[in-house]
Design a protein that fits this description.
With 179 residues, the chain is an alpha+beta fold. Helices cover 34% and strands 22% of the residues. It has helices at residues 17-30, 36-51, 72-83, 96-107, 156-161, and strands at residues 87-91, 116-121, 126-135, 141-145, 150-154, 171-178. Strands 1-6-2-3-4-5 form a six-stranded antiparallel beta sheet, sandwiched between helices. α1 crosses α2 and α1 runs parallel beside α3 (72-83).
Length: 179
């Protein structure tokens, strides 16, 4: 990864974690290094596009209240546009082991891998979005966490047992992955 992970890539407000993940996915695909002064405005613009009446290309979409963050279907649509493959939203609690394995397979190694969005929260609600970018040497996922702008690790055990520590949240809710 050649991005300057850290404060430069921190989400600018409490609602734009999903949009920050989309901006980072675009940056990784185009191999462009962001300017510190450009990241926050790009994230806020992307968030408006993800929850507005029309998407980035001007196609109609179901609007969503901005203060509720970014809906999983908007993340799936945006990632499909960036990656050029269809994405689907899966519910993590139904099959956590196989979804973690599918996410690890999707991110793969090198440029051929595709990022995977993970919605995490507490036991009751999804509250945050992170972007799985690559597998670690231990079989975990290395994830971009917009709350800090840094890379964090999610192990298979933590994912299946609700012990994640991503943006302060522990439970997986949705996995948005290519299919």
């Amino acid at each position: 990864m050649s991005l300057p992970f850290g404060p430069v890539l921190r989400q600018p407000d409490g609602y734009s974690c999903g949009a920050a993940c989309i901006v980072v996915a675009r940056l990784l695909r185009t191999r462009v290094t962001p300017l510190a002064s450009a990241f926050a405005p790009d994230v806020l613009r992307t968030h408006r596009e993800l929850v507005g009446l029309t998407d980035r290309e001007g196609h109609a979409q179901l609007p969503w209240p901005r203060h509720l963050g970014t809906p999983p279907w908007a993340i799936a649509h945006a990632l499909a546009g960036i990656e050029g493959v269809p994405y689907a939203v899966k519910v993590a609690r139904h099959e956590p082991e196989s979804l973690f394995a599918a996410a690890r397979d999707a991110v793969g190694e090198g440029r051929a891998g595709h990022p995977v969005a993970l919605y995490v929260g507490n036991r009751f609600l999804p509250r945050h979005v992170v972007l799985a970018l690559e597998p670690s040497d231990t079989g975990a996922l290395r994830c971009y966490d917009p709350a800090s702008g840094t890379l964090r690790t999610a192990s298979p055990w933590a994912f299946t047992h609700g012990e994640l520590h991503l943006g302060g949240w522990t439970h997986p809710w949705f996995v948005v992955l290519p299919h």
